[in-house]
Specification:
about 290 residues, alpha+beta, two-stranded antiparallel ribbon, membrane
């Protein structure tokens, strides 16, 4: 039996990571590895794409070598997959611990990975196999040259559209990240107003997400019931990301901060496990 509240202890431990040098260094380290592993995986897929492309452009009897990408790119698949999996998870974990929010600092983990993919894809594309003759699959053995069909022309253009698609995905991820962070800033502005002009009341957890047995964290919805200043019972269902140790039990108390002039506006309702005296208490778990 312990005399220490495990929920409070876990919260204190995680709060200690916020803005810490350790969390910052590990975030940077794993961010670099996310980029590197993404680049390695993209180079491997580019090598595979290059092989398919070469078979579409040149005759099977062509003397043209496979190109500078060679065959060693196959080794990059297991390294890239394992490295991406580990680096992605750990960068996300330490980045959110450092900021104390659902966001990693500066760039999101997926955006970092796609930057690595884009850089590697463009580099690999510059080293793709060149056709023996544009528009013709030259057969040096039997002289049965074949004019390119639609598929061959599509693969010829793959030197541009292959890295272009990856770059477009990277740009999309970056834009989504910017929009999400802007939305977060608007929420922070509303919270700033409510911290001085809002009303706090007690709430209670009526439902909580259930983690899988091997999950360290859980993403799901809490259901929180509270009573506003007019005596009306209200419920909110915020989407939360919680460490396993922080998942509350049904009936656990929380602090609810709301706008007494607009008690039904869910955009102006915030909650906290603690007394709700700081901005961070109301933002660190809600997605």
């Amino acid at each position: 039996m312990s005399t220490t509240d495990p929920l409070h202890a876990a919260h204190t431990r995680l709060e200690g990571y916020r803005g810490s040098t350790r969390a910052a260094l590990l975030t940077v380290l794993w961010g670099i590895l996310v980029l590197a592993a993404g680049a390695m995986l993209a180079y491997a897929f580019s090598g595979l794409f290059n092989m398919v492309r070469a078979s579409a452009l040149n005759s099977i009897f062509s003397d043209t070598p496979d190109g500078p990408l060679g065959e060693n790119y196959f080794w990059f698949f297991p390294i890239g997959f394992i490295g991406s999996f580990l680096a992605f998870a750990l960068h996300r974990m330490w980045g959110t611990r450092f900021t104390g929010t659902p966001f990693t600092p500066v760039l999101g983990t997926l955006t970092l990975a796609l930057i690595g993919w884009s850089l590697a894809a463009w580099y690999a594309a510059s080293r793709f196999v060149q056709p023996d003759q544009i528009g013709m699959a030259v057969d040096p053995t039997f002289g049965r040259d074949e004019t390119w069909g639609v598929w061959a022309w599509i693969m010829f253009a793959g030197r541009w559209w292959w890295p272009g698609i990856i770059t477009a995905l990277c740009a999309t991820s970056l834009i989504i990240g910017v929009v999400s962070r802007a939305h977060r800033r608007r929420r922070d502005d509303i919270l700033g107003d409510l911290l001085t002009g809002g009303r706090r009341t007690s709430g209670v957890i009526t439902s909580a997400p259930t983690p899988s047995p091997d999950a360290a964290r859980v993403l799901g919805r809490l259901t929180i019931q509270f009573t506003d200043a007019a005596g009306t019972q209200r419920w909110i269902q915020p989407t939360v990301r919680l460490e396993r140790a922080l998942i509350p039990a049904i009936g656990s108390p929380v602090t609810v901060l709301f706008d007494p002039l607009k008690p039904g506006d869910t955009r102006r309702i915030f909650w906290s496990f603690g007394p709700g005296t700081t901005r961070e208490e109301f933002t660190q778990h809600t997605v």
